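Dear colleague,

Following up on Tuesday's group meeting, I ran the structure prediction for the two-component complex that the binding team flagged. I've pasted the input sequences exactly as they went in, so you can double-check that nothing got truncated or mislabelled along the way. The C-alpha cells for the whole assembly follow below. Feel free to forward this to whoever is handling the docking comparison.

Inputs:
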Amino acid sequence: MGIEQGKISRRQALFLVSNAILATMVLYVPALLAQETGQDAWVTVILAGAGGVLYGAIVVFLGARFPDKNLVEYSIELLGPWAGRAVGMVFGLFFLYLNGVVIREFSELLVSLVMPETPLVVFDILIVSLAAYGVYLGLEVFARVNEILFPTALFVGLGFIALAIPEMEFYHLKPALVHSFPALLRGSVLLLSFYLEGTALLMFYPALRRPEEGKPISYQVGFILAIAILVDILGVIAMFGPEEAARLIFPTFELAKTVHLGGFVERIESLIVGIWITMGGLKVMVFYYVSVLAFAESWGLRDYRPLVLPTGMILAALAVLEFADTNQIRTFFRCVPAFTVTVLGGITVFLYLITLIRAKRTGGKTDKDD
Amino acid sequence: MFWNLLLVILLGVGIALYEVPKLLKRQMRRELIAFSGVLLLAVALAVALILRLPVPNPTRGLEILFGPLTRLLYPAS
C-alpha cells in the first residue's frame, strides 16, 4: 500500500532511532546541560529519560494502532485530505529544516576540529551526497548499515570514556542536588527536545516486519540513550568541572583528547571524529528519508525517489543559509526546545488525542488498545 | 562566482537529465510536476545564495516565532 516496500527488523528500527537521536545529542548537550544545571546534570538525564519513555509510549501507541500506515497516511485518514496533508507538510518541513541544522553542525565540527582551511560548503556537499545515495537506495539499505555501525560506534565511544577515567576528578560532582527543581526541569526539557526527534520512527514504523511487536522500542531507545548520555555527561563533568565544561564547544571531543595510555596510545581523538561523522551521516540519512517520504505522501506521489536529488540541493543550501557561525548555532539551541516540543510534540499528542476520541466514539473497535 | 553559478546550473540540468527520462517512461505526471517544482526551488535558492541576494533566513523567523516561549522557559538568557 505505502510507498516504502522494504522491510526492517525491530532491532534495525531501534538502532536507527537511537542513532538519529544520539548523534547530535552527544555533540552539544553536555555543554548546554553543564551551563544550565552544573554538576547536577545527571538528575536532568534521569528526568528527561522518564519523560522520553512516556513520550515514546505515545509514539508506539500510534504506530501499533495503524500498523500498515505511516504518520502522513493516518493523519490524512483522521483529519481529512486537506488538514492531513498540511500536517504531513509541516512534519516534512520540520525535518528538512532540522536536517539542515544537523548537516551544518557536522560540517562545522569538521572545519573547526580537523580541517580548518577547507571551506564549510565542501563538507556540507559531501555529507549531503553521501546521504542522498543512501536514501536513494532505500530504507532497508541504510537500516542495515546502521545495524552494524551504531553498536560499534557506541562501543568505541564508551571505551574512550573508560580510557579517560584515570584523568578524572570525581570531586567535581560533589555538592550534589544544589540546583533548584525548576532549573533541573528546564534542563530536562532541553534534553527531552532531543528525544522528541524519535518521532521520525512513525514514518518507517509500517516497514517493520511485525509492527504489532514494535512497542518495546520506546523504552529500549530511552534506556540506550539515557545510559549513553549519562556516562558522557558524568565523564565530561568529572574531567573538566561544570564551569569549564559549560565553556567548551565540543566537550566530548576535549575529553577524548585527554586519553593517554602508557605513552603509546596518543592523539586518538581523530577516531572519535570519524565515529561522529559515521553517526552524523546516518542521522542525516534518516531525517532526509523522513522528510522526502513525508513530502511524497502529502502530495500523493507513488514514489519518493524523484524528490531525493532536488531536496538534496535544498538541504545543502539550507545548511549554509541557516547560521552565520558556530556561536549562532549555540544561541539557536536556546530556541530548540520550544520549537521541537511545539511542532513534533504538538503533532504527535494531537493525533494521539484524536485517535482516542475516535476510538471512544466508535466503541467496540478498541481491541488494539492497552 | 561565475564558476559556482555554472556548476549549480550544470548540477540542476544533470539531475533533470537523470530523472526526467525515467519519469516519462513510467508515465508519472504527478511525480514529474513535483520533481520540477522542487528542483526549480532548489536551483533558485542556490543561485540566490551565490549571488548574495537577500534570502529570508528561516532561523530568524523561528527565533521570532518561538522567542516568547523560549524566554518563558529560560528567563536568564
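The longest helix of chain B spans residues 2-25.

Cheers,
M.
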